[in-house]
Amino acid sequence: MNRLEGLVQTTTLNNGVEMPRLGLGVWKTNNTSAKESVKESIIKGYHLIDTAKQYGNEAGVGEGIKEGLAATGKNRKDLFITTKVFNGDQGYQSTLDALNGTLKRLDLTYIDLYLMHWPVDGKYLDTWKAMEKLYHQGKVRAIGVSNFDNDRLQDLLNHCEIVPAVNQMEFNPINQEKDIMAFNSHAGIQLEAWSPLGGGEALNNPTIKQIADKYNKSVAQVILRWDWQKGVVTIPKSSHEERIIQNSDIFDFELSDQDIQAIDALDQAKRSLWYPDFEWHTTGQMTDTVDQWDDSPKNYKD
């Protein structure tokens, strides 16, 4: 299977929606870079694009979508766009209202997957009720969560009408979230990886480097292939054309069971962002902060 054939491969979410299994993430990317990387990724055959209001680059992503579609002759329905409910917008009515601003910045009429960015304590149940309403209204094709541990996810399942379609988590060889992965699988929730390459510690790991040399692939390609074979949807970030291509060149080889087990054994449960490290959900300043870039639109309020 070549890279273009691989990029159209999908997983079926629990509501029947088909979601591409490999896409592009744009965290910590300003609007100009986001526009260029999104445009380039569409030209290079990507279908899944992942952003968030908190990233401060929805406007750039929207421009990249428009330019990418124009350059390829593809249609909106050929893409799968994910964005997220901003922490500062959580709550019932505020979540309903916030989608309008997101759609305006992205210049879209609907979102394919709308995620709750973090489980803001005291608000996430009301936020989910609003997301269910948006789903029923047809403004979003699927709804899910991000950064939900098993306790909070179980609480949500105890109160929800619609089971989340996706839980997007930090997932990489150093932090494999095995308990969360098992819980999600049992509940019929697709696991999606943010920070799939795990930073320098994973990219410089000698075990993965040895495996990469065996297949004549890069360490990043081996990690993304490991994600693929474990059934995890993956959204590696890149703003460089060469890397965008390389990250999707993972379909012409297959890791052996022994190689999969060797990478599985690297798990340190080492999270870069997680409870109790983040205190925004109670008293911290992250509650209502959107990343602002020098090239941000002057008015980013909804």
TrEMBL record:
Which Gene3D superfamilies does this one have? NADP-dependent oxidoreductase domain (3.20.20.100)
Keywords attached to this entry? NADP, Oxidoreductase
Domain (NADP-dependent oxidoreductase) ranges: 22-267
One Pfam entry for this protein is Aldo_ket_red
Family per record = Belongs to the aldo/keto reductase family.
User: What protein am I looking at?
Assistant: Aldo/keto reductase
According to its UniProt entry, this protein's organism is Apilactobacillus apinorum
Give the taxonomic lineage as stored in the record.
Bacteria, Bacillati, Bacillota, Bacilli, Lactobacillales
